[in-house]
Amino acid sequence: MTRAKFNQVVFARQTLEPELAARALPSMSARDIKTLETIDHTIDRAMAKGDVEGYMRGNFQFHFTIYKLAANDMLLGLVESIWLQFGPFMRMAYGRYDTSKLEDFHQVALKAMSKRDETGLRAAIAADIGQGMNFIGDEVLLHTEADQGNPNVAHFAAARMAS
Fold it and tell me: Are 36 and 66 spatial neighbours (Cβ–Cβ below 8 Å)?
């Protein structure tokens, strides 16, 4: 994936996904939130075990359980298309690098859902996407560009590895 395509994916995700989450909030029940909490605990266990497949499956389930509640097939289809485009890239990133240090913005999102805080939910989803995509961009794109012989990036990557 090129950096330009990656930046397009980040923009699309940060534009569409918080909107879908906000649109889901009015129809979200206490039972839905409990289901999301259960999914998030599953994600936590997968991360603790280093289970990349379990983490990715749970992360997808968490996000799309929310987004489906928005009952907006058009936006949901766009987001699904975006996930299909970057999913393999995300799998490669999370398979190579330690994700255990990522902050759990799902917990922030769950608190916002419980409080019916649309602004907080939008911010939590945007932060979750931003953190995950920045992690992927920093860890994978940087190394990919270095491997492809970009001298500026190769120098930066070598300096980061040394620190």
Answer: yes
